[in-house]
Design a protein that fits this description.
The protein is mainly α. It has three domains: about 300 residues, no CATH class; about 160 residues, Up-down Bundle (Four Helix Bundle (Hemerythrin (Met), subunit A)), CATH 1.20.120; about 150 residues, no CATH class. The protein contains 25 helices and no strands. Helix 5 runs antiparallel to helix 6, helix 14 runs antiparallel to helix 15 and helix 24 packs antiparallel against helix 25.
């Protein structure tokens, strides 16, 4: 019996864990209640206003279904703007091409492709708004291709329904106390800061954890980017809190990178000097909750200045000191940014967090959507199927939605499962539960189970796509109206066409201009190469902007990397080295341009810039020594610029020494 006890305990634990996963938590129930109430409120208002497209109000609520108030408000704003733009374009296209369907379809496919292309270069809800302005034209213009005279009325009804949906979900979220996104970001950011500090502590004490660990840390930090942008609309001081979150996120990227730089520089020194040892100790002190970044910045600034005034410190010692100072400054910005987010008030700085997007990938995505729509239009026109315009609207919307997802193939699988579920659920509610009844209370009760299940599925990342499609297309197929229509033939036709649209999307993302993991890596690598060439030539933006772009590029590169562990590590090492060299070259050029005005340093700065442009590692190190030798007689502000220039020259030179053969393969010549 005693031997069976552990087995029973294990089985009970597994059963309990399974029950916890299957039974929704109270927060999930609250979320589902809010979405259901908002959908019913939007429908009731649309019926009361006698809008012809009343179901669009419920669909709008479904699309805006977000767990937190800030996310919903952010998406609502860009949904409204995207709808206005799409409605205006629909009216223009109908006015120009109402008499020529071919030109109308071609012009719409072109517009949809342009919107998808633009969405690739935007983030989060802004990308959604750009994409929405594309398929809104299908909902208004293509859906009324046989009755162009009703397009303006349809556009007005569409805008009115979207407005009702936005008002309904905003009111319900406020009335029922929807969770605030800023609190979630505050707690998640605190965890990211702690993880970054732990990563830095391990790096400084045990050695570099490697590029894979660094990429994993970047992934955890990057999760915060989207939510940080949704904070601005939640509170009166939301813009300041959002700026604080962005500043902290950018600082965490720098902390992760500079900790590795400090460790590498110390490892190259035969014996660290007392100043370097103190700098390392100060950095370690910042990896705990009791660290004082402001005091560390002041002391490290003095250590860097003392090393420059000496003029004979090893180059790697100057590099270690300067990167320690960079680490302390980043820790200060991280602390200040989290404070601004948690308590309000202006942060020390306001920075942007741009994301990296590859032009070939955006172009392929736009062409894929346009081609899929064009081929579908030709197929339906040739076969003469009924309700062709409805099918075209679904193809346009699902293809456009897939274009802004991280993995269109995964989304297509969710659509392929969610569409039949939505059709089945709408059929059961319409012909089973309602069965010809016209009462609004029964409609609200009948919709509740499907809405609740869809909300629960959408909160679980593996089933998000299924839940989202079920939640959105259930009211599309149910098509609530006043009075309610019960047309079995029309319903079956629409249900069949949405499943066909799901099949078209499923095969589209696999057949039309597919992008393999290897091609994704090639795009990212080519983008890194072009950015490095620009940086070597002296071009480049703000250092924080470059850090954000490089981090996002590295994140994408790591996501698409595959193969054996050794191959993956080597590939990531090269990607990190390219990013490190690009940042160092661009920053060095910026510092050297500022130093060139000093008459005593013009010759040294010219030689240093020439060495960068010719990718001459030996020349960079020689120029760094010359600049360091000239530092003792310089002004304090000039010495500060010299320290940054020397450290960046040394960083770039070390990367060239490690990756010279790889750089030559990329077409970047080395001396």
């Amino acid at each position: 019996m005693s031997e069976l006890a552990p087995a029973r305990s294990t089985l009970s634990d597994r059963a309990l864990a399974l029950a916890e996963r299957l039974v929704p938590r109270p927060a999930a129930w609250a979320f589902a209640v809010r979405i259901w109430l908002a959908m019913i409120l939007a429908l009731y208002a649309a019926f009361w206003l006698q809008l012809s497209g009343a179901s669009s109000a419920a669909v709008c609520v479904a699309i805006l279904a977000q767990p937190t108030r800030g996310q919903a408000l952010s998406k609502a704003l860009y949904r409204f703007l995207g709808t206005l733009v799409g409605a205006a374009v629909a009216i223009v296209l109908i006015a120009l091409f109402a008499q020529d369907r071919v030109l109308l379809l071609v012009s719409f496919a072109t517009w949809l492709g342009c919107c998808v292309f633009t969405a690739h270069f935007l983030q989060d809800t802004r990308a959604y708004g750009a994409m929405l302005s594309g398929y809104t034209v299908a909902i208004i213009a293509i859906a009324h291709i046989d009755t162009p005279q009703s397009t303006f009325e349809a556009a007005v009804d569409r805008v009115a329904a979207i407005t009702l949906g936005i008002v309904a979900i905003t009111f319900i979220n406020d009335a029922l106390g929807s969770p605030s996104i800023w609190r979630s970001v505050r707690d998640t950011l605190a965890g990211a800061i702690a993880e970054t500090q732990a990563f830095a502590r391990e790096t400084l004490t045990r050695g570099d954890p490697g590029s894979e660990r660094a990429a994993a840390l970047i992934r955890k930090i990057a999760v915060l980017r989207g939510d940080a942008g949704a904070i601005a609309g939640e509170l009166d001081d939301g813009p300041d809190r959002a700026a604080g979150a962005r500043s902290a996120i950018a600082a965490l990227y720098v902390m992760a990178a500079t900790a590795r730089h400090v460790r590498a520089a110390i490892a190259r020194l035969p014996e660290p000097s007392p100043a370097v040892a103190e700098a390392r100790g100060l950095c370690l002190g910042l990896t705990g909750p009791e660290g004082d970044p402001a005091a560390a910045v002041a002391r490290l600034s003095d250590l860097v200045d003392e090393a420059l005034r000496a003029g004979d410190e090893p180059l790697d010692a100057v590099l270690a000191l300067q990167r320690s100072l960079d680490f302390a400054r980043a820790a200060l910005f991280a602390q200040d940014g989290h404070r601004a987010l948690a308590r309000g008030g202006r942060p020390l700085r306001r920075v942007a967090l741009p994301t990296h997007r590859d032009m070939p990938e955006a172009l392929r995505g736009a062409l894929r959507v346009a081609i899929a729509f064009g081929l579908t239009a030709l197929f339906f026109a040739a076969t003469g199927w009924p309700a062709t315009s409805f099918a075209l609207v679904q193809v346009a919307s699902t293809c456009a939605l897939s274009s802004i997802t991280p993995d269109p193939r995964v989304f297509a699988k969710g659509v392929l499962i969610g569409m039949p579920l939505a059709a089945l659920s709408a059929g059961i509610v319409l012909f089973g539960m309602l069965a010809g009844v016209q009462g609004f209370p029964l409609l609200a009760i009948a919709m509740a189970p499907v809405v609740f299940v869809a909300c629960f599925l959408s909160l679980n990342p593996p089933t998000f796509g299924i839940g989202f499609i079920l939640l959105v297309f259930f009211p599309v197929l149910l098509s609530p109206a006043n009075p309610q229509s019960y047309d079995p033939q029309g319903f079956l036709t629409n249900a069949f066409l949405v499943v066909v649209a799901a099949l078209i999307l499923f095969f589209t993302v696999r057949i039309i201009l597919p992008i393999s993991n290897a091609r994704h890596r090639a795009f990212a690598l080519d983008s890194a190469r072009r950015a490095l060439v620009d940086a070597l030539a002296g071009a480049g933006g703000d250092a924080t902007t470059r850090t954000s772009l490089n981090s996002d590029r590295l994140l994408q590169f790591a996501r698409w990397s595959s193969g054996s562990g050794a191959v993956r590590r080597a590939s990531l090492d090269r990607a990190f080295d390219l990013a490190r060299m690009e940042s160092a070259a661009a920053r060095a050029h910026a510092q050297l341009r500022g130093l060139a005005h000093d008459a005593g340093l013009s010759g040294e700065t010219a030689r240093a810039r020439a060495a960068i442009e010719t990718v001459d590692a030996a020349g960079m190190l020689e120029a760094a020594r010359a600049l360091l030798a000239a530092a003792p007689g310089a002004l304090p502000e000039t010495r500060s610029h010299l320290a940054r220039a020397v450290s960046d020259l040394v960083t770039a030179a070390h990367v060239i020494e490690r990756q010279g053969r790889f750089l030559r393969r990329l077409g970047i010549g080395t001396a």
